[in-house]
Input
Amino acid sequence: MAPHAEEPKPDSGVDLIQHDGSKYGDWRDDFHRDGSAIVKGVITPERAEYYKKKQIEWLQSFKRGFDPNDESTWTQDHLPVSFKGGMYFAYSSTHEKFVWEARTEPKVIDTFSKLWGTEELLCSFDGMNITLPRQKDLTWSPWPHTDQSPHRKGMQCVQGLLNYQPNGPNDGGLILMKGSSKLFDEFFRENREQADHDDKPPEDENFKDLFIFKEEDVKWFEERGCKLEKICLEPGDLVLWDSRTMHYACFPQGDKIRHVQYICMTPAKFAKKEDYELKAKMFNTWQGTTHWPHCNIRVQGPPMRNGQVCSQNRSEPLEKPLITDRLLQLAGAKAY
Ligand SMILES: [Fe+2]
Output
């Protein structure tokens, strides 16, 4: 068989979706052109409302005095520990019943199935984002980044977020540079250093699949016709992007709380045996992962409050998910 006719293998530098340029007449055309797409109405507004309510209840379950109607309680002291002021990965939250319900919404799975051309998928155990506008004790600076290491070439992962709240130009949310994924391999042909940002991962650190860009790097992409854009969304929209796409989140300027669930699925056949086993172990112990479903599966560490593990850390979700064969397959805990 000629090399190009073989099925692409992860980390061989080849795009994992070999798109021949044919048109679908739906969001897949956007995705293959820009490296990102908005899939409209993947869940109903009613379902989005349900998930919003569950997220708020989850914040309140820590009984630290957080009140969604009283802004004076919108501080770190009243909330469980988050990353970047709103991303929740810890406390086994990535396995809460409502989180798995979102991942297994029929059209969520269907979207990833259509993208990859298979129903045999693995799902990431990544977090949700609940960002409160005007939270006083937060410092915020842009961190344009990709969640794919420069050492991985080609299209290797597609990540996504399911949006629950109307999200306009002033609301906190995703800023994304359309088309930047197509320039990733060219950009990293030269040796590039990460920006000296607070979140820069230590060398040889856990988060290998993260690169934070410098201002001059952003310009490099802009000179090639790309532009950072705020993505506006309605409740129920799912955004997908090639993990080589430059992105970050802006802090909410409006009145609305940001409510999002990160969801990412890739074909199960991409996972190595040891990654499959590790994933099953993470699931069985209710631990979270990175955005990557089939590899880059890393322990996220406990939530730290004032230099100590948060005394309210949890080793299991508050409400366990309803275990079905489909869920176990997506979790990597049951073979296809
Ligand atoms: Fe990211």
